[in-house]
Amino acid sequence: MAHATTFSLKIQTLLGTVCWLSISCSAFTSQDYAEALDKSLQFFEGQRSGKLPPNQRLTWRGDSGLSDGSGDHVNLVGGYYDAGDNVKFGLPMAFTTTLLAWSVIEFGSSMHNQMENAKAAIRWSSDYLLKAATATPGTLYVQVGNPNVDHSCWERPEDMDTPRNVYKVTAEKPGSDVAAETAAALAAASIVFKDSDPSYSSKLLQTAIEVFNFADKHRGSYSDSLGSVVCPFYCSYSGYQDELLWGASWIHRASQNASYLSYIQSNGHTMGADEDDFSFSWDDKRPGTKILLAKEFLEKTTAGFELYKSHSDNYICSIIPGTPSFQAQYTPGGLFYKATESNLQYVTTTTFLLLTYAKYLSSTGRVVTCGSSTVTAESLITAAKKQVDYILGDNPAKMSYMVGFGSRYPQHIHHRGSSIPSIHAHPDHISCNDGFQYFHSGSPNPNVLVGAIVGGPDNRDNFGDDRHNYVQSEPATYINAPFVGALAFFSAHN
């Protein structure tokens, strides 16, 4: 705890100094970040599948997917719809869970009255992942809903009449990527609930270990096993080696079992540890794993782990302008830019890693080495703040890319439930094809998906608030998840 307190004091001093030097520092107050944190967690309630609880805040949503899994005689009710559709995709859902848990693990002490909402967001998916992992021995259920059929409809989740096929990975049809990410999610969640619900935490960790063993023993990519039902939607482009290392890293952090340390030491070099990669996402876990493992070296100088500090530094050096190995792209307005489709997912993951690494460096008195130049923890926080503030509205368009935050935000998001009148406003069934009248409508979405962060602007800071333009206007759980940690940090350290 002493480290955390020292870190907080350093940051408060730093941000006070930066504010004297920079007008942009006054764009948002601690209260603004706290409001955004609250809304970022409300978003997950809007993505819920299953039987909604009495304390549901986004009340325009209703129960959905209540028979998921029944065709295969398993209970797969619950979990999250990944984005603007009605499919439950296991790989992005597990990654979302891991990042929500990591947000609480690193920045939970800054969440204050949002801690219970954050835990509820994690538990909604960890409960589902537990069911998916334990329903049938030797099987992990990884998807509910045929995406090809689902994507040809525009209907509310409450009205779904498309097939709710279930898809699974087994010893014969392996999916090490989705299984190892599921193991990471369960292990990370076990840390979150360790004090408040020890028996649940223990069950999460034990299941994580079993799922990881399954992933490691029966190696293969779920893209090869499941083909067109996961590709091109959430195809595992980076393969499964990065997830195996990531999963082992999380189980080690949760269990402190030395066998996972040995696994990492023996396998790291074959699982992407020797490669510098600068994109952290639901598909590619390498930068996140390296920063997670750098903590082990920074705090315990564990043999062989200096590699992860070195590669974490390389990752940071590639992002921070002015370093000799800088190679990232930024828009004219200063937004980190990685890809045309759903670019803000890379902004939020990068921002989270900047803040997490700043925390690790600050607590151990270290810096980032970029050739002949050094980058401090304070510089990482400043860089992260620019990205957070851009998303919240400090940008050339003066638009917040979080729905419901600020005076100007996207009104026509690519999201079925948000764009069709709710079951309370329009109780009659709206069929697959009848929903398209709302998709093509020029009117704003009738239901505000509070807290949703959309795909975001293009590389010239232009944004089309257009339901048809899904690359910019579709929200997703894995865009929001890492942002929860970043908002918690700035709500307490601004």
Short description:
The protein is mainly alpha-helical and 494 residues long.
Helices and strands in order:
Layout: H1 2-21, H2 30-46, E1 88-89, H3 90-107, H4 115-134, E2 139-144, H5 147-150, E3 166-170, H6 176-192, H7 198-217, H8 222-226, H9 241-255, H10 258-267, H11 286-300, H12 306-319, E4 329-330, E5 336-337, H13 344-364, E6 368-370, E7 373-375, H14 377-392, H15 416-419, H16 436-439, H17 470-473, H18 477-493
Antiparallel strand pairs: 1-2, 2-3, 4-5, 6-7
Structure write-up:
The protein starts with a helix and ends with a helix. About 50% of the residues lie in helices and about 5% in strands. The protein has helices at about 1-20, 30-45, 90-105, 115-135, 145-150, 175-190, 200-215, 220-225, 240-255, 260-265, 285-300, 305-320, 345-365, 375-390, 415-420, 435-440, 470-475, 475-494; strands at about 90, 140-145, 165-170, 330, 335, 370, 375. It has a three-stranded antiparallel beta sheet with strand order 1-2-3. The radius of gyration is 21 Å and the shape is globular. The model is unreliable at about 1-5 and about 10-25 (pLDDT under 50). With about 500 residues, the protein is mainly α. It has a single domain, classed as Glycosyltransferase (Alpha/alpha barrel). A hairpin with a 2-residue loop joins strand 6 (about 370) and strand 7 (about 375).
